[in-house]
Amino acid sequence: MTLTMLAAPPLPAAHKRAEEWHENRRTTHDDVWDMADACLEQTATVLRKTRAVSATELAHAIALTRASHAKGEPADLLEMIAKIQGHAEEHLNRVILDLGNKVASALSVCHPLIPFVDRLLAPSAFYDSFNHIHKSARVLLSPVIYAEDTDAIGTASVNPVAAAILAEEIRITVFKRFGIRPFVTAARLDYENWTFLSRKHFEL
Questions:
Q1: pTM of the full predicted structure?
Q2: Fewest CB within 10 A of the end CB: N or C in the chain?
């Protein structure tokens, strides 16, 4: 199977925050949850601008997502919104895909939707070498879907903001360690592939 994806330039805010975190040399427990909160804030900002959900639903979903984070449990705002709206499990894929489309439409770069990622092997060697990236990917729920050494790396999520933030963190981390700028792609997953990979990569 051949994956054709575009290298995703970083979101300006994601780029700035990732650079700040790395320059501070923080790889603590709190560091990755700060990253998750930045993802939450940026996603909420886009949803407000696009009026994709009501203010009441958004406020409720933000509170529930932060409550999960406070307990050390990864959670994504898009999934939380779909669940508080009361959609049945069989409809979550469509609803979350629609929310992801609205978020993606507000961003300046293309985050292609890719199928069949369940057939790809988890990049265990990459995760072992970059434990902080694995922790970051877990809290952002944006698994690394492929890693060709440190030259070409891809991440994907139902939430394009999460994928963009992790992609920038990967770029900075690899450059700081090896002095090379990897080709990093950020893509989107449907809900079923996302939940499957989250279990497979993060034991969630």
A1: 0.86
A2: N
